[in-house]
Amino acid sequence: MRTIIEPFRIKMTEALPITDRGDREALLAEAKYNVFLLDAQHVTIDLLTDSGTGAMSDRQWAAMMVADESYAGSASWRHFEQTIRNITGFKHIFPTHQGRAAERLLAATRLKPGNVVPNNSHFDTTRANIEFVGATAVDLLTPEARDLQSQDRFKGNLDLAGLEKVIRDEGPANIPFCMITVTNNAAGGQPVSMENIRRVKEILVRHDIPLIIDACRFAENAFFINRYEPGHSKSSLLEIAREMFALSDGATMSAKKDGLANIGGFFACNNDDWADDFRNLLILTEGFPTYGGLAGRDLEAVAVGLMEALEINYQRYRHATVEYIAEKLLARDVPIVRPPGGHAIFIDAAAFCPHLAASDYPGIGLVNALYLEGGIRAVELGSVMFGKPASDGGAETPAPHELVRLAFPRRVYTQSHFDYVVEVLDFVHRHRDAIKPFRIIRQPPFLRHFTAHFALAG
Ligand code: F0G
Asked: How many of the other CB atoms lie within 10 Å of CB of 29?
């Protein structure tokens, strides 16, 4: 059969908040047109993020019930450690409360002011943690990734020539490690090929620079490799994941994505000195190394979830969902980034709203329209998130692209929910002339997208 079905049935339901347009109009005004400031109880379909928003399986809940909450050396810790060692092969494994805690401790223990860290694309918390200790985070995207319509299958790859240049310019001694983010969230959830990871590693080995994988969506990336990279179609996702990790020296992970858990993360590595430094700081701020800020039941949820994320039928369904929506949107001429990524669809808000300039924040206009018409919450990844405000109060430097991300929580919404999302997007697209320009009326000094207040311009 050609229809790919959800490989689960539903044992427990959660009521969806249903609101009407009049309510939503008032709620948007109250939230100062920033959907981060809406209460989730007023959102019907929440596509703000795929992080920590997934549904857990009966096997995860069952494991949580038998979790061991001992402070030191719990059975749940052993389950967590052995699962991650089985997947990654790393010697040292440290739980953290989420991905950014692993990033913070890695940056604090390995980086000095003036150091440089290359990556295909740093996620914003990774960049912020690197910059917080005075180092510089460099993004090395390929030219294909910058072209929103390029059909390249591995648009998440790290630019090899760019890496060679950074090493030449900075000197290897100033690069304590290089990172690769799989999949490349900031560049549209695009995958990285095994070939690219291998070639990055070859370059780094010549200069004695370790490679750290930001592994948040490692299982989704493994699926892309299995499906699209020659030579990998016969390998299981676990085998592909092992091969990816074997090419690296360590990994940071947010288990809120491919750990299929609502909280959790880890750092893993082989180097004993790195592990000693990490452990010392972990105890200071996160917790004893066998729980790292997590409850025993969280360790269990992650241990079971990581293996479920590597199940081929789960990944088939996950990717089929994204492709299903992408196909329907393309058939309705809704401009999206192609090919669609692993965890999200990115809409080109500049092409969607040709009547708006970057300074009108078309992404904010589109996000507001999606909530107003359908109670759907999406997120702007454009000039509000990435634009650079002028220090003298003059014109801002806009972001390279005005995107809106629809991120898909794992195992949460059904096909009819997505049919509804397509219908709302199609409606908003046909009435796109009604999308209004916005201006910022209040903003904090950094990460302004979370708390800024907007008003309709003019
Ligand atoms: N790295 C990547 C690639 C991420 O996408 C995220 C989180 C993190 C690190 C940080 O992990 O949230 O557990 O501290 N991304 C979420 C998102 C928040 O919506 O894309 P965390």
From this structure: 11
Q: Are residues 337 and 403 in the same domain?
A: yes
Determine contact, residues 256/265, Cβ cutoff 8 Å.
yes
pLDDT of 13 reads 95
Q: Residue 339: is the preceding peptide bond cis (ω within 30°)?
A: yes
Compute the distance from residue 427 Cα to the ligand 1 centre, in Å: 31
β-strands 250-254, 265-269 pairing: antiparallel
Tell me, yes or no, whether 73 and 209 share the same domain: yes
pTM over 0.90, yes/no: yes
First to last CA, the chain: 54
Residue whose C-alpha is closest to residue 242's, from 263, 262, 225 = 225
Atom of ligand 1 nearest to the CA of 184: 3
Neighbours of 206 (CB within 10 A): 11
Whole-angstrom distance, CA of residue 109 vs CA of residue 267: 12
Domain that holds residue 445: 21-50+312-456
CATH number of the domain residue 275 falls in:
3.40.640.10
The residues pairing with 137 across neighbouring beta strands, listed in sequence order, are 117
Name the domain boundary from 309, 338, 360.
309
Ligand 1, pocket-test mutation among 121, 216, 217, 380, most atoms within 8 A of CB = 216
Determine the pLDDT at residue 400.
Answer: 86
Ligand 1 atom closest to residue 48's alpha carbon, by position in its atom list: 19
pLDDT tens across 314-348, in order? Answer: 999 999 999 999 999 999 999 999 999 999 999 99
- Calculate mean pLDDT across residues 15-26: 96
